[in-house]
Amino acid sequence: MKTKFLPLALAAFMALAMFGNTTYASENRKEKDSPNMETYYIGGLKKGNLMMWDITSQCSNTFSVTIKDDDQTYVEINKNNYVKELNLLSHEAAIYEGGSNLRIEVVFDNENVQIKTSNASGSIRNEKGKSIGCIYNYSLEDGNDRDYNDAVISLTSWKKNG
Questions:
Q1: What is the domain partition of the chain in residue ranges?
Q2: Among residues 124, 103, 90, 93, which one has the least CA distance to residue 38?
Q3: Which of 38, 69, 136, 151 has the smallest set of CB atoms within 10 Å of its CB?
């Protein structure tokens, strides 16, 4: 019985070490500039990391999303149509150049929009449990239907070279 329990306990421990801790130990703060504007600060990236992002929308409002740091703008995406169907607005990548205050800024054109956010972040871990990358997801609600798909921003980052 003990010989069968030990491999199971070890496998469970390794699974928890790899997948159980989804918190990425880095700065991940949010600032509310005004009701229709949000700024999400991203931490934990190092100069030379690859960043990949997806930005989608399923709302009738117009807005912009900017990913930038104090030194440069990586992308600025504008949703300038009133289409309610699913829109893939951006699927791109860039090398992080190491500027301070990496952030995602979201501005809805309608000043009456009050952005609500559901966010998640986590570590990408190798088989030894070492963090080799990070994932950030921001799901925004611009109204009262609570679907949190009005703007969805996902940013994934990892070392450029293995």
A1: 22-158
A2: 103
A3: 69
How far is Cα 28 from Cα 16, in angstroms, rounded to an integer?
23
Which residue type sits at 96?
A: Y
Residue with tokens 């921001």, as numbered in its chain? 138
CATH no., domain 22-158: 2.60.120.400
Per-residue pLDDT tens over the stretch 25-60 = 344 556 666 889 999 999 989 999 999 999 999 999
One DSSP character per residue, 63-81 reads EEEEEE-SS-EEEEEEE-S
How far apart CA 154 and CA 55 sit, in angstroms, is 7
Enumerate the β-bridge partners of residue 51.
Answer: 94, 157
According to DSSP, residue 5 is labeled H
